[in-house]
């Protein structure tokens, strides 16, 4: 009896090992066929970027394969890194959208040189163009999605290199830094406790923004209301904040998201929006650090614009109004790909 049982069990195991694995549907098989050869690197590619002060490497990671839809994600900050944008991994693959996470120079997994001459919008635009070439993106498939500072970078790239684009997504970013500052002062500041606001301003005036109290006040009274409204911040968001390159961020943005005072303080492209001719989606959230009405207006200024409003969203609407945000972005990409 034991011999018979052992024979049957052995037959079952042998059959299980030799049975062919059920094939994925052709679409899924095609999506995961990235053409990698040699040692596979989980889609990660370090791309050399030439700058006026030398050659450095930036970090990219590819997901999927789609010959007509390739989305390059531009993170905010500046220098916040790609990590808070990892939520796209939960949505784009199931839609067959090829996309790339990307750490700009100075951020997270990219090289982090210290020459301050590198931290200009113009130099970052040329970096994006070099990344585009290295990833073989072109006007037949290249969608650029920029969030916050990445939205500034996306607009600047489009104004110089839009012939390389198929579609543009400007997420949670106004077309004017001075207008952004005015919105923070005239609208958002008035929603804060006056004593808290006064303390924040005093710390800024004394250049004590590295004092833990400064960020504690902002986290409690501003960031939790206007950056990400989830009761518990997602781990990728926390990770981005931990990895933020504070030197670059402060130099370009200022000490916090509460207004703007760095090198970008006078940046303004409102008058140039009509020059953008590629299909463009602007995204705004009701509780954003940016004025959602301004971002709606932006969609009327570009030649082929549309607007996505996240009624429950803040600056990181991809997290706190996730379904609205992702469904709207995916619909835009699908519509452009379908020629609508």
TrEMBL record:
**GO annotations of cellular component type:** membrane
An individual GO BP term? proteolysis
**Single GO molecular-function term?**
peptidase activity
The organism sits in which domain of life?
Bacteria
Keywords, in A-Z order? Hydrolase
The active site annotation covers 148 (nucleophile), 288, 315 (proton donor)
All copies of domain AB hydrolase-1, residue ranges: 71-321
Keyword Ion transport: yes or no? Answer: no
Instruction: Tell me which family the UniProt entry assigns to this protein.
Output: Belongs to the peptidase S33 family.
The protein in question is named Proline iminopeptidase
Organism, by scientific name, is: Niastella yeongjuensis
């Amino acid at each position: 009896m034991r011999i018979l049982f052992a024979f049957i069990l052995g037959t079952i195991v042998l059959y299980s090992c030799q049975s062919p694995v059920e094939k994925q549907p052709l679409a899924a098989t095609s999506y995961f066929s990235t053409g990698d050869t040699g040692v596979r690197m989980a889609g990660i590619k370090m791309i050399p970027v030439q700058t006026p002060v030398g050659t450095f490497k930036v970090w990219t990671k590819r997901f999927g394969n789609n010959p007509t839809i390739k989305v390059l994600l531009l993170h905010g900050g500046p220098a916040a890194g790609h990590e808070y944008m990892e939520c796209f991994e939960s949505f784009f693959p199931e839609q067959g959208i090829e996309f790339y996470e990307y750490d700009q120079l100075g951020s997270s997994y990219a090289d982090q040189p210290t020459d301050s001459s590198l931290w200009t919008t113009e130099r970052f635009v040329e970096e994006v163009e070099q990344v585009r070439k290295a990833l073989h993106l072109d006007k037949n498939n290249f969608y650029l999605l920029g969030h916050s500072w990445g939205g500034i970078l996306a607009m600047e790239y489009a104004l110089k290199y839009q012939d390389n684009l198929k579609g543009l997504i400007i997420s949670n970013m106004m077309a004017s830094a001075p207008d952004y500052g005015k919105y923070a002062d005239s609208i958002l500041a008035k929603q804060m406790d006056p004593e808290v606001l006064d303390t924040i301003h005093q710390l800024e005036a004394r250049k004590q923004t590295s004092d833990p109290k400064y960020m504690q006040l902002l986290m409690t009274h501003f960031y939790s209301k206007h950056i990400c409204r989830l009761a518990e911040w997602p781990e990728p968001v926390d990770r981005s904040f931990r990895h933020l390159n504070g030197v670059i961020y402060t130099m370009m943005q200022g000490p916090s998201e509460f207004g703007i005072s760095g090198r970008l303080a006078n940046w303004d492209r409102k008058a140039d929006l009509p020059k953008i001719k590629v299909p463009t989606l602007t995204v705004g959230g009701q509780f954003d650090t940016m004025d959602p009405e301004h971002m709606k207006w932006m969609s009327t200024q570009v030649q082929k614009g549309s607007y996505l409003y996240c009624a429950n969203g803040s600056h990181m609407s991809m997290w706190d109004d996730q379904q609205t945000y992702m469904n709207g972005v995916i619909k835009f990409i699908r519509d452009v790909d379908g020629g609508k």
